[in-house]
Amino acid sequence: MSDVTILAPSPTLTVTVEDHPQGSEIHVHAGGQGVWQARMLQRLQASVTMCCVLTGEVGRTLRHLLEDEGITVIALEREGRGSAYLHDRREGKRVVIAEEEGDPIGRHDLDDLYGAVLHSSADSHAVLLSGPAGDNTVPADIYRRLSIDLRGTGTKVVADLSGERLRAVVDGGVDVLKVSHEELKADGLIEETSVPEIIRAMRQFRADGARSVIVTRSSAPLLLADEDGVIEVSLPRFEETETRGAGDSLTAGVVAGLTQGESLRDAISMGAAAGALNVTRHGLGTGDAESITRLRERVRIRALPGLDPHGTIDNGRMSPDDLAGLADIAGPDAAAAEETS
Description:
This protein is α/β, with parallel strands linked by helices. It has helices at about 35-45, 55-70, 105-120, 140-150, 165-170, 180-185, 195-210, 245-260, 265-280, 290-295, 320-330, 330-340, and strands spanning about 5, 10-20, 25-30, 50-55, 70-80, 85-90, 95-100, 125-130, 155-160, 175-180, 210-215, 220-225, 230-235, 300-305. It has twelve helices and 14 strands. A hairpin with a 2-residue loop joins strand 11 (about 210-215) and strand 12. The model is unreliable at about 240-245, about 280-285 and about 310-340 (pLDDT under 50).
């Protein structure tokens, strides 16, 4: 039995070239959203089963890499083009040399993948639904169906998605939805990245089927909306080495806390610490449990002023101090969030 089952439809083979005093250094790893989440979950002592489709020679290589990391892999194997990328970081910035999303997953393989998630989830504390490498890899409706069927069996469902997949998982009902403010704006769900606008979107997600919603805002404090209201979660800022994978580490930290019996409002501090530490490292989804635990003590959580438990901004009951506090939240931090991608 694994603590967490992850749907990772199409893991990615990552090849990265780094600078080295004696020339170039080439790193080959398994990657992609679900893999980075699984890696962080394992750092936090949560066991993981990954349900995925592995394609062609890329897929055969990925299986070895995933199993070498201690991840239990339930995979459908097929021929074709798998997801992979080659990036060059020798000049200090990530330069894309080649990227391939891989072939779409056919309906028979999708049926088997769906069944694998349901089977594995029977022995897991939570299921984490992550996205595929490309928009056309799997249909969005699989997330809606899984949300309905998993929650029908009493399984806790966490989703880290955007676009059509986000809409689908909300329609199906989900315990915890995580999304970034950039994704909300790109999907046309908010017109601006102000705190009031984000809170309105979070309230709508909850009305439509998401029990709790987490919105990250790059280096600005993240927001959590649940049945008790809206809170702001902040950490000291760190010098960034690699921002990719930070959101996935945050989601993994939250799930790790939930599997250990914590409430979401407690688990969010684990997620915030895991995400903050990840930006200081080259490896995506990496970090050690001791450092995350110590960093967690520096997480600051506060309820936002002038909000009722449903996330409604009640301007009629806000004092001048409350208005100033909300403006302060939406000010410098929001500007910093806009500049960071």
